[in-house]
Design a protein that fits this description.
Lipocalin; 41% strand; four-stranded antiparallel sheet; 417 residues; 2 helices; 3 domains; mainly beta
Length: 417
């Protein structure tokens, strides 16, 4: 059967949707496809600290990693300051909770961070910001240069490894699992690089420097995305000054697009045959890139860009033919995903770090103030509800088991009808 280009794009969307529908869990940052999409139904549009709350529990310590959900269990990380510790000394921990009840099943220290071994972090960061991930058999947790580990789902250590680099503002990006390797970026203050560890034992499968960055500010924090395009599996990894696509098994560079930007945080998304990402500080732009080229394709494969309302921190979201995003200062946008034409832009209030989520016909924009604006997807702005938990929040939602799982500064909520 022969597919026309438009049919191939449509088929890709169907396959992504089918993958999300088949996976009821939320196994990594931004869910089954890593793009903020859930197939869950019957989710609430309205809630408060009491309304539509299945349970809420206090989470020890502090961490801005997002929760993940697998086989009826929630996993997340946190950093607990011991009573007798000073400075940045922390017990870096992984937690497992029952998704139905919120009861803690286990709470284990993975690493101990000595005060002398850590750089100062940004005021919006934490010592446990990267989101864990699971393949359904193991749990992978990452604390930047403090260490990366593989645990059993019962919390027992399988392996651990420390990859040293000098971060600016602390750790941030989450690891991804693709073709048997655990990939993450180490874009620190100098000599930035990416690394892939063998998921089975933590040994280094490959490591690649980040050449060609001209800006003196080399640090970035983006989580990569694995896609298949042009018949090739690719790791799309944004960095300061450029986004690079790598071959997962070898680390070979496939293509790159250069731009002006540093401290890159948003995770890319992929739909309609295009990769969408934001170039972050100082003047962010949302870019749409065709991932089918080879070498430096800046001049040939950048399809469109938009600057007004572009985010520094939250990732973008594709629903149907539209791309949605919210700026750090609270301007939400809907644009045509193929052309970049703006359908609407709306100030929804608040400051934003968490990435938006789509589920059950609703888009959830969650602010740092703990307020969620719920919007109906479409070419016209239609607000369904505004909800407040009254507490600071930088973590993105998890969606699974007929519920939203929302982490605030001190608590974890199960929000459901």
């Amino acid at each position: 059967m022969k597919f026309l280009p438009s049919s191939v794009a449509a088929l890709g969307i169907v396959l992504i949707t089918a993958a999300a529908a088949a996976a009821e869990d939320w196994p990594q940052f931004r869910g089954p496809t890593g793009q903020g999409i859930s197939a869950e139904k019957n989710l609430p549009a309205e809630w408060s600290t009491a309304k539509n709350v299945g349970w809420k529990v206090t989470v020890p310590g502090k961490g801005w990693s997002s929760p993940i959900v697998s086989k009826g269990r929630i996993y997340l990380t946190t950093a607990v300051k011991p009573d007798d510790a000073s400075g940045n000394a922390r017990s870096l921990r992984a937690l497992c909770l029952d998704a139905k009840t919120g009861k803690t099943i286990w709470n284990n220290e993975v690493f101990f961070q000595k005060d002398a071994d850590v750089e100062r972090i940004h005021g919006k960061n934490s010592h446990a910001s990267p989101t864990p991930l699971t393949d359904g058999k193991h749990l992978f947790v990452h604390f930047g240069p403090q260490g990366t580990a593989c645990l059993t789902l019962d919390g027992k250590m399988v392996w651990n490894r420390k990859i040293k680099y000098s971060p600016r503002h602390g750790n941030g990006g989450s690891p991804i699992l693709v073709d048997g390797v655990l990939f993450f970026s180490c874009d620190g203050m100098s000599e930035p690089f990416v690394v892939a560890l063998n998921a089975s034992d933590g040994t280094i499968a490959w490591k690649r420097d980040r050449p060609g960055v001209d800006d003196v500010k080399t640090f970035s924090f983006a989580t990569a995305l694995s896609i298949e395009a042009g018949g090739k599996r690719q790791i799309i990894s944004p960095a300061t000054g450029q986004v690079v696509a790598y071959e997962p098994k070898s680390g070979r560079e496939l293509w790159k697009v250069k731009y002006s930007g540093f401290s890159i945080i948003p995770r890319p998304v992929y739909a309609h045959g295009l990769v969408y990402l934001s170039t972050s500080y100082m003047s962010p732009k949302v870019l749409a890139i065709s991932p089918t080229g080879a070498g430096d394709v800046t001049a040939s494969h950048l399809k469109w860009s938009i600057s007004r309302g572009a985010p520094n921190t939250p990732s973008t979201l594709v629903v149907g033919d539209e791309l949605y995003f919210v700026s750090d200062r609270g301007i939400a946008s809907c644009v045509d995903a193929k052309s970049g034409k703006v359908h609407w832009q709306q100030r929804i209030g608040g400051s934003f770090s968490a990435s938006p989520v789509y589920a059950d016909g609703k888009i959830y924009f969650h602010s740092e103030q703990g307020d969620t604006t719920v919007v109906k997807p479409g070419k016209e702005y239609r607000e369904l509800a505004k909800n407040s938990l009254g507490e600071r929040c930088l973590a993105s939602f998890a969606v699974a088991d007929g519920a939203l799982f929302i982490r605030t500064e001190t608590k974890l909520y199960r929000v459901q009808k």
